[in-house]
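Troubleshooting: if your tokenizer reports a length mismatch, compare against these two reference records.
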Amino acid sequence: MNRSTYILTAIVVLLFIVSWTLKAVSLSGEVDDNITRGFLITISAFLTLAIFSFLYKDNPFYKFAEHLFVGVSAAFWMCQGFWSTLVGNLFPRLSEGLSNFFMVPYQYSPYNITYWIPVILGLLLLMRLSSKAGWLSRWPLAFIVGTTAGLNFIRYLRSDFVVQVSSTFVPLLGNESHPWTGIGDFFSHLSLSASGQFMMILANWIIFLGVICGLIYFFFSKEHKGVFGFASRIGIWVLMITFGASFGYTVMGRISLLVGRLTFLFRDWLEIIS
């Protein structure tokens, strides 16, 4: 690091200590508790600003916050996996001594021998760290990828395919809450309420026509001309509106996170807003 980097680091450390001191003094409560809370609030604000500093350019403070986040996340999930998977599920079924050591109830079963299979696969996966025996890790890795793909295929087939296909089979005239009783009764009770029969029918027709037009857009066995081409262009609009709404929803979620961090900085740290 050059001289300017050392000077900037010293300034940041000095500002951190000053902020920590002022925050601890402004809090109400026990002195030791105020010092701890002041440190946690200050370090949270520092890490937030360090991440925001990437908007200017890449810098050591951003790299420190990024690496700290990755390291803490990896350590957290490693501990979660150890205590929930190994201690919670594996050790109680393998050894009574390990169960007593970790103070979890021993769960004996004649099928406990099968739990040695994941133990062996896990040990083989660690062979990845060896330059000579690294090829052994391919077997458990292939098992993990294949099992995950098979399980997710069934799950996505049910949730993203079957459910969505069944959701497109909607009644075009009325529904269970507003059954179709004739054209006269429909106009006599016509209402623009969101829960009214007219809006229900309109929504079902939009779903039906949107699905048909979207499927026509991806039908390439016939040239998109005339009525078929018009329906294909409607399908493009349906797809673009869907993608736009999905992207907007994602942006709104990210904006809510940004608002949360800004609220923390101006309310909990600087106490500018209440």
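Reference record two:
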Amino acid sequence: MKATRPLTAIATTIVTSCILGLSAMAHAKQPELKPFFADYKAEVSGISGSGSRSLEKDRQQWVLKFGAEVSIVIASINIDETSKLTLKDGKVQPVQYVYKRSGIGGKPAKTANFNWKKLESVWQQKDETSTVKFKQGSQDPLSYQLQLRLDLKAGKKTDLAYPVVDDDEVYERKFIIEGEEILSTRTGKLKTIKVKIVRDDDDRQTWIWFAKDWDYILVQFLQKENDSDYLIKFDQGKVDGKPVKGL
């Protein structure tokens, strides 16, 4: 005679299956990263410049880069930022951050290495070194923008905040989601999400626009400070190998 399974065993199997199923669903919904590159045109109170952003996979890590060049009369300012990072459970974890500035106001390169077991980062600029403790969820000065994109992509509607580790301090970068907007770009009109950076005073106001249909890449950045405007507008780019096109 075939043995009958106890009701407790059957119930345990059902509950376990449900938990595993929900876990798989949650894992499947985790935002994914896609490689991209984007070129921008910049204006700083009438002074022109250019910029670029890119994200590429390098073995088990991702490499996020930002570069900008602004020309002033016969001189120029060049800024290059690189963040090497990993993605764990939908969360960006910076591994190494490098900041370089040349031209006017040029400084020695600044490098930070993140140790997630010890929850500390070591910053070095020339002969100066500092160690900064941080908490889970912390970002570097560039990687937080990628985490913001992932959270917008995941459909988060509430205001967002990220601890940012920068040199010898940890500060919180806060954002207000202001809503959707159709933005005109060189490639046509794009559906965007408009986000404002929260600051302690009103002397500087900053907004960022992300393209909804193109993996939420940054397509416009506007900063107003002391009667000066700093505007970056999307020029061209690709997401996952596909050229960005308007509606």
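Descriptive notes for reference record two:
- Residues 1-28 have pLDDT under 50 and may be disordered.
- Helices lie at 7-28, 143-153.
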